[in-house]
Design the sequence.
C-alpha cells in the first residue's frame, strides 16, 4: 500500500485547537464541563486512521496534555447474531446483507456511550472484531473494553468520533427519490459509473430512515473534519490497497473481486450523502467544519472552512 504522508495535520491541528479554545471559554466556570466532541469523516483508505493517531499523540503531549478518547463507528456495529437477523429479515435488500450501512450500527449503545462521556462518568469504549466469523465480524466481549474516566486526574477532555459515515444526514423520501431518479437517467444515457441506480428505491429508503436515528450523535458534535476525495471513485483503489497490505501481513484476506463487491455495498451512501456533508452539517458559515480535499495520491489539494 502506498505510504500515506501526513500533510493534513498542519491544517487539522490548528483548527481543533481553535475550536477547543472556544469550547473552553463557553464552559468557563462550570464545575463539570463536558468534553469536546469532534467528528471525523473520511472515505475508506483516505488516511483517516493516520490522522487520528497523529491527533491523539500530539494533543496528549505538553503543552496540550488533553486526555483523548477515540470512538470508532466501526466498533459500534450490532453483534453478529443481530446482524444476521437484520439481513435475514430483509433478504432482498443487498445493502444490509453485511455490516456497514446505516441500520447495522447499535445506536442505543452509541447514545449511551456519548451520554456517559458527556457527564464524565467511567465509560467503557466498545470494540468490534472484524476478523470473526470469516470476516463478518462480531462485538468483542465487554469485559475487554477499555474504560476511560476512571482516573479523575485524566478525565477525558476530547472525544473523537470517527468513521466513514460520521456526519451523514438523512435526506427524507423526496430527497432520496430525486437523487435515485437522476442516476437512473444517467444510467440510461450511458454516462453513469456509480452504484445508486443499481439499487431499488425501497432499499435506499430503508437505509435513509435508519440514518435519521444517527442525528442523536451528529447533533452532539462540536466540530467536524471531513477528509474528502476529489473523486469518490478513488475509494475502490484505496480500499484495494488496504486489503493488499492486509494479505501481505496476515497471509489471507479478500480477493480483488471481493473488495470491489464490498465497496459496492457502501458506495450508494457516498452518492446520496456526500453533497450534504460538503455543504456543511452544521449549516453554512458556522466555522465548525473543516473540509480537506485530497487527490488520488491522498495529498491535500484544497482546504475549505465551513
Sequence:
Amino acid at each position: 500500500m502506498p505510504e500515506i504522508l501526513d500533510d493534513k495535520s498542519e491544517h487539522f491541528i490548528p483548527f481543533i485547537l481553535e475550536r477547543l479554545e472556544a469550547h473552553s471559554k463557553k464552559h468557563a466556570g462550570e464545575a463539570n464541563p463536558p468534553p469536546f466532541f469532534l467528528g471525523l469523516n473520511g472515505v475508506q483508505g483516505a488516511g483517516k486512521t493516520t490522522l487520528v493517531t497523529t491527533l491523539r499523540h500530539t494533543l496528549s503531549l505538553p503543552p496540550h496534555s488533553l486526555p483523548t478518547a477515540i470512538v470508532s463507528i466501526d466498533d459500534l456495529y450490532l453483534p453478529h447474531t443481530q446482524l444476521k437477523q437484520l439481513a435475514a429479515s430483509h433478504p432482498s435488500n443487498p445493502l444490509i446483507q453485511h455490516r456497514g450501512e446505516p441500520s447495522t450500527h447499535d445506536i442505543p449503545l452509541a447514545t449511551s456511550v456519548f451520554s456517559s462521556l458527556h457527564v464524565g462518568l467511567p465509560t467503557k469504549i466498545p470494540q468490534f472484531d472484524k476478523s470473526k466469523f470469516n470476516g463478518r465480524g462480531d462485538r468483542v466481549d465487554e469485559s475487554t473494553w477499555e474504560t476511560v474516566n476512571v482516573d479523575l486526574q485524566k478525565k477525558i477532555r476530547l472525544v473523537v468520533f470517527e468513521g466513514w459515515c460520521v456526519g451523514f444526514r438523512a435526506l427524507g423520501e423526496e430527497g432520496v427519490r430525486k437523487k435515485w431518479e437522476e442516476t437512473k437517467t444517467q444510467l440510461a444515457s450511458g454516462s453513469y459509473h456509480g452504484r445508486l441506480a443499481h439499487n431499488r428505491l425501497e432499499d435506499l429508503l430503508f437505509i435513509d430512515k435508519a440514518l435519521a436515528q444517527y442525528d442523536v450523535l451528529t447533533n452532539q458534535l462540536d466540530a467536524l473534519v471531513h477528509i474528502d476525495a476529489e473523486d469518490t471513485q478513488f475509494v475502490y483503489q484505496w480500499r484495494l490497497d488496504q486489503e493488499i497490505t492486509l494479505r501481505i501481513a496476515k497471509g489471507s484476506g479478500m480477493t480483488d473481486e471481493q473488495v470491489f463487491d464490498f465497496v459496492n455495498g457502501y458506495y450508494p451512501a457516498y452518492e446520496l450523502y456526500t453533497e450534504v456533508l460538503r455543504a456543511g452539517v452544521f449549516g453554512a458559515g458556522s466555522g465548525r467544519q473543516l473540509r480537506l480535499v485530497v487527490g488520488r495520491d491522498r495529498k491535500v489539494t484544497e482546504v475549505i472552512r465551513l
